[in-house]
């Protein structure tokens, strides 16, 4: 594929209006550039065999800045480059070393071994190692799945709301004269135990009498019933969504989780930099992953095969996170691990001592500073999964999701207690007026009677009278 500088077929149709700097590189020689087919870096466009993708656009921009002509070809063995036991390199790195190509432009990872045999430019993209798998394959049935619609914080909040409401019903029943008119003569129906039993019945949409008679008690009860009905509606709606949603919570979230199970097979591209990372790692978890892949021979020949096997199910494909993000954006049933390890970078490879490297490094930095690399990333990683079966996400509800409901309950409890105190204050004022006593002394005496002191004093007075 011919690509003279500024060739319209390679132009990305986007300019930031910045004056381009042209640097001289090896005169007017036509550069031979090797690449490898991998979405979205290098892809075939239509039936004519023309190439397109992130790396094709990157080459075009570099050729404009540096003023070189180039010819693109795909690597013959469809490999990135690794050294065999005899010391020979295959893939794109091998072509650069043997002089079959002047540059290798692809998602080529910068490694210490490769740097010894070729010169590599400053990175044009940063990434790390992650893994993808089907959402439904990675999920496991939990013994406590009935608790999954609400988060742990939510359950703690509900427990606190339950305890506060039960205590409020108990206090209102004690304070309100309409609820407990004669503490010395009548038995109090709303004990602490009955208060909690009463609000528990409301949670199951069942009655648990006796019911409050005072306005304050009825207000607290009504607010709690409303809270319970709305809470149950949210619970069952989210529970139903989780049952029918394909976006389940993945139980395998890290490489340690992957290594500690043997239900799901996993692998990576054979002889790639990701495989070499696990092979050379001293981390026991990563060593176990490598030993598993060696024992099961679960390697794949290409990124495309790894994505296909992950889609088929019961397989986790380990690879570069930035490439896996594209697969997740294209295929809605896949999900990528949150954990990303071994941060690395993609660079351009050239023969040792090549005068191209310095100029290419400067041009890549200019593209990065101008925002061109960010634009290319957004252009080729655009999600095509809109409206698909992975568009909807079901997550456990958290307290802030229902903060309005909790605020309503708190307001209702506060108003209920205030009404009960006002009822008691009104009674104390009437008694003080009739008995020509201080309102505060009557109110204090009434509170003592309702919370035990008065009852004990009355019992003591009765005993003294009987002795006399």
Q: What's this entry about, in short?
A:
The chain is α+β, with helices and mostly antiparallel strands.
List the main descriptive attributes of the protein structure presented here.
468 residues; alpha+beta; ten-stranded mixed beta sheet; 12 strands; elongated
Number of β-strand runs: 12
What would you call the quaternary organization? single chain
User: Roughly how much helix do the residues carry, as a percent range?
Assistant: 40-55%
The shape, in one word, is elongated
Q: What does the average pLDDT come to?
A: 81
Backbone structural class: alpha+beta
SSE order in H/E notation? EEEEHEHEHEEHHHHEHHHEHEEHHHHH
**Helix count, per DSSP?**
16
The poorly predicted ranges are 4-27, 246-250, 386-393, 454-468
Q: Report the β-strand fraction as a percent range.
A: 5-15%
The termini sit apart by 120 Å
User: Strand count, sense and closure of the main sheet?
Assistant: 10 strands, mixed
Radius of gyration: 37 Å
